Amino acid sequence: MLALMKKIHYALNTARIADFLAPLALRLFLAPVMISAGYNKAVSFDSTVAWFANPDWGLGLPFPALLAFLATATELVGGLLLLIGLLTRYVSIPLMFTMVVAMATVHWPHGWFAIAPGNPATSTALPLAKLGIPAAQASLENSEEVGKRLSRARQILRENGNYEWLTEKGGLVILNNGIEFAMTYFIMLLVLFFQGAGRFLSVDYWIERRLAPGVNV
């Protein structure tokens, strides 16, 4: 048994035949996210500029038209480049910067969770709260309040609306809009920055083969 485990371990650490699958999966996951975000900004560009500019209900940023254009172009072009695996390491940099800006300007005040946990017993903050981390404990307390509001909202909908129809496509949740998703995308982009687009199914790979035919890539 031990010999078999050693063989498997050696094979996993030396075989490269399928090592392109992980960066490919990251690219295919991230590309539609970025393209969709950029496209939505582009088709309602005036509203995007207004949101960037307004300090009351928006971000209150300087040079809103310029920043809105840069964000839109970065997500659209960056998403397309990720899709085909071209200039992957380079385009990951502005995309990571975009995620940092989004976390700092939009999501940071809302904490970690993108969707507010409504049950303290199943919240992913529970293990950290048991370790005594204040932010996690606060999250658990908040989830109790969220649970009460969700319960009340469900009651109102059942009494006054077609609850089954309203929840047919998904359960009722409270959007928290924390940094969770933006941080996840940042980490995925960070992996692509260090690992590249992967072999075989990326333009970067074939360019590198063309430019350095004697190098094992």
From TrEMBL:
Keyword list, A-Z: Cell membrane, Membrane, Transmembrane, Transmembrane helix
Membrane-spanning segments: 20-39, 59-83, 90-108, 182-201
Record's GO cellular component terms: plasma membrane
Any one Pfam family match given in the protein's UniProt record, by short name: DoxX
InterPro entries (UniProt xref): DoxX, DoxX-like_oxidoreductase
Cell location: Cell membrane
Major place of residence: membrane
Superkingdom to which the source organism belongs: Bacteria
Annotated membrane topology: Multi-pass membrane protein
Record family assignment: Belongs to the DoxX family.
PANTHER family: DOXX FAMILY PROTEIN, OXIDOREDUCTASE CATD-RELATED
Protein name: DoxX family protein
